Amino acid sequence: MASNIKYPEDKVLYFIRGDHLGLITTYSSSGESRTDRKAYQAFDHAVSDGMLIHYYGNPKKVDALTDFPDVDNLYHSSIVDYVKKCLYMDKAGSTPDAGMMQGYMSLMMQHERKFDMAIKKYGTKKRSKTGGTRAVVPASFT
Amino acid sequence: MSHPIHRLSVKQIISRVRQVFPNAPEAYIMSLINDAINEIGQYSQKAVTAKVNIVANQMFYSIGDGSTDSSTEEMGINKVYRVDVMDNDGDYIQIPRVLDGEPLMFDITSEPAIKEPE
Prior knowledge:
Chain A is of the alpha+beta class. Chain A has helices at residues 8-11, 76-94, 98-121, 123-127, and strands at residues 12-17, 20-25, 47-57.
């Protein structure tokens, strides 16, 4: 079922409040006149699939050995670094030998650095799918 | 023309980890892999689009962990960057965003998950 609203871009607004999205409109199906204070209210009619939300989402978790991580394949080897980093940290925390602990910590930091470089420092460069020349289109004032 | 790319399955990741940690439990490694995926998810932007039913007289829609779309699929929203609303022709039209404080009227009755002091 389509909406009753012909021009949502003029009549509908949204805002984000924590973990909730607020959807408000000046449109009234009954044509009631509202004061300015109460101009924006919730939709007064239901619309199936009425809202399309575009967002950056969480990757899916893995459950089985045959799963592939739901992130770009460029990051897959970094996951190995992350896991090794955690395991070296566990080792360092459980060994009674101070010398060995230093060794584990040093290896842990190497893997942490590799992971951080790949994801945080160069992550944007790797994931960008855009290319080519860019053009600035001047606004038409006519 | 086929264009195979190199990917690592969970099994291959575990196998690489076990070169150094042969006794690391599989379930623990898998849990760490999921931690890594969540961490990467903060930086790697996975663009997703979901349809949500508009409910009559409901101002607020949940976008938290576990919130679902109109086909009851979990959405897993990190950051909303655009919202469209269906017009009377069934086409989706982008709508503007305002700040939380701008609308004067607050519809507390339609907020199912609102936190009230207990």
